[in-house]
Design a protein that fits this description.
By secondary structure, the chain is an alpha/beta fold. It has two domains: 145 residues, Rhodanese-like domain (Oxidized Rhodanese, domain 1, 3-Layer(aba) Sandwich), CATH 3.40.250.10; 117 residues, Rhodanese-like domain (Oxidized Rhodanese, domain 1), CATH 3.40.250. It is 27% helix and 12% strand. The strands form two sheets. The chain has a five-stranded parallel β-sheet. It has a five-stranded parallel β-sheet with strand order 6-10-9-7-8. Helix 4 links the parallel strand 4 and strand 5. Helix 4 packs across helix 9. GO terms for molecular function: 3-mercaptopyruvate sulfurtransferase activity; thiosulfate-cyanide sulfurtransferase activity. Keywords: Cytoplasm, Pyruvate, Repeat, Transferase. It is found in: Cytoplasm. This is Sulfurtransferase.
């Protein structure tokens, strides 16, 4: 990582000052839960940060054969898709989303999983950018010039159900879903899933790590949240959620705290809650 580019987040001020930097590639990584009935790709067509390209991890940049939603794709597919977006190994990627900090962290985690550390999340996302009356594009997006990207898979950053099952006694597993879903008091948004949580896991709803303006809380505040929930920051850590999106927000916060090795359970509850042979607690 060059010293010129900050990670794991950049401010709106920083991005505004670097819009013309040829190495900076801005990716709109917006995603909406199926229950929201919004189309992130269509919204991107109508409004975006200048020069942004759409990072479609729910449609294109995923494993097309997986039963669970937007599972991590193969290195070859990732290379092809991000290369088509104009991302090279020399690029500094800035991911944002329309919710503030929600799905942009999935993009950040995917790039890191494929060996690209030159990536950051826009702190506060599009809401903060617009609140500050910064320029946006509303005309049709231009087609980026393709680039060459070579992936280097880092398997320690992604966990399977078997990995989680084997780590129940040794790792701190943190669930980013709401307390209601974690405690089986609220229904799951996806049909056919059991209610509850992975045995022994901790609950930190991802909204808890965000300040009122949608930015990440301070490192001291983040540390207090994790330790206050009972997590030992020296233990192996796996984050989980509904489908592997908001778990990446916890991984982002843990990165700030020096835990760059925090792994994400990719299938999360969309897999664990579906498979009857896997244990649950309520």
């Amino acid at each position: 990582m060059t010293d010129a580019y900050p990670t794991p987040t950049v401010s709106t001020e920083w991005l505004a000052d670097h819009l013309d930097d040829p190495k900076v590639v801005i990716l709109d990584s917006s995603y909406h839960l199926p229950t929201v009935k919004r189309d992130a790709a269509t919204e991107f067509e109508g409004l975006r940060i200048p020069g942004a390209r759409f990072f479609d991890f729910d449609g294109k940049i995923k494993d097309p054969d997986a039963d669970q939603p937007h599972m991590l794709c193969s290195p070859d597919r990732f290379e092809r898709e991000v290369g088509a977006l104009g991302v090279s190994n020399d690029s500094f990627v800035v991911a944002y989303d329309v919710n503030g900090i929600f799905s942009a962290s999935r993009c950040w985690w995917m790039f890191r999983t494929f060996g690209h550390e030159n990536v950051a999340v826009l702190d506060g996302g599009l809401p903060k950018w617009e609140h500050e009356s910064r320029h946006v594009e509303t005309t049709s997006p231009t087609q980026p010039k393709p680039a060459t990207f070579k992936a280097s898979f880092h398997p320690h950053l992604v966990r399977s159900a078997q990995h989680v099952l084997d780590a129940l006694e040794t790792a701190d597993i943190i669930d980013a879903r709401s307390a209601g879903r974690f405690l089986a008091k609220d229904p799951e948004p996806r049909p056919g899933l059991r209610s509850g949580h992975i045995p022994g896991s901790f609950n930190i709803p991802f909204q808890n790590i965000l300040a009122d303006n949608g930015t990440l809380k301070s490192p001291d505040a983040l540390k207090a949240i994790f330790t206050g929930a009972g997590i030992d920051l020296e233990n192996p850590i796996i984050t989980s959620c509904g489908s592997g999106v908001s778990a990446c927000n916890l991984a982002l916060a843990l990165y700030v705290l020096g835990r760059e090795d925090a792994a994400v359970y990719d299938g999360s509850w969309s897999e664990w809650g579906l498979r009857e042979e896997l244990p649950i607690e309520t």
